[in-house]
Design a protein that fits this description.
Aminopeptidase; seven-stranded mixed sheet; 5 helices; globular
Length: 153
């Protein structure tokens, strides 16, 4: 089945929230900043110049990510998730490739992300695409973050 990447629509807000809450609760806990972004995605991401995209696989929403304005030259990759039943189908790979291309098309120079090294498959994927570890601000924007990465696009 071919994968489609589709832009945010208001009727997909609950999918975005729920996919991200699932992995956050599995590995960490939901922080106040997470609640703000996930419960108010349109206002906190879209209306502020960001974007949210979804992976549609076999006519089902299988994954998502957001691009949040970071500074004039960069976007932040955030809230990337793939539903458990769709993992192993390279959906995360395709979402990340799309995010990088979209960042280029927006005229930005780089893509930044915050993660945690216990998310081994995600860190491996980021490194495969050329993301490099950079110094993180103190305190980090998320308590769970122990790695900040940057890709020049």
């Amino acid at each position: 089945m071919a994968l489609q990447i589709i832009p945010y629509r208001p009727e997909l807000a609950a999918e975005f929230r729920d996919m991200n809450l699932t992995w956050l609760k599995q590995y960490f806990y939901v922080e106040p900043k997470d609640r703000e972004l996930l419960n108010n995605a349109e206002e906190e991401i879209i209306d502020k110049g960001g974007a949210i995209f979804f992976a549609k696989y076999d006519n089902c929403i299988a994954g998502c990510f957001s691009l949040i304005p970071y500074n004039n030259e960069s976007l932040e990759l955030g809230k990337m998730a793939v539903k458990k039943e769709f993992q192993g189908k390279k959906i995360g790979h395709d979402l990340l490739a799309f995010a990088i291309q979209h960042t280029r098309e927006q005229g930005k120079e780089s893509l930044v992300l915050y993660s945690n090294t216990i998310l081994t498959p995600a860190i491996h994927l980021y490194k495969k695409f050329g993301f490099k570890t950079i110094e993180m601000e103190n305190p980090p924007p998320y308590a769970r973050s122990n790695i900040k990465m940057l890709l020049k696009v």
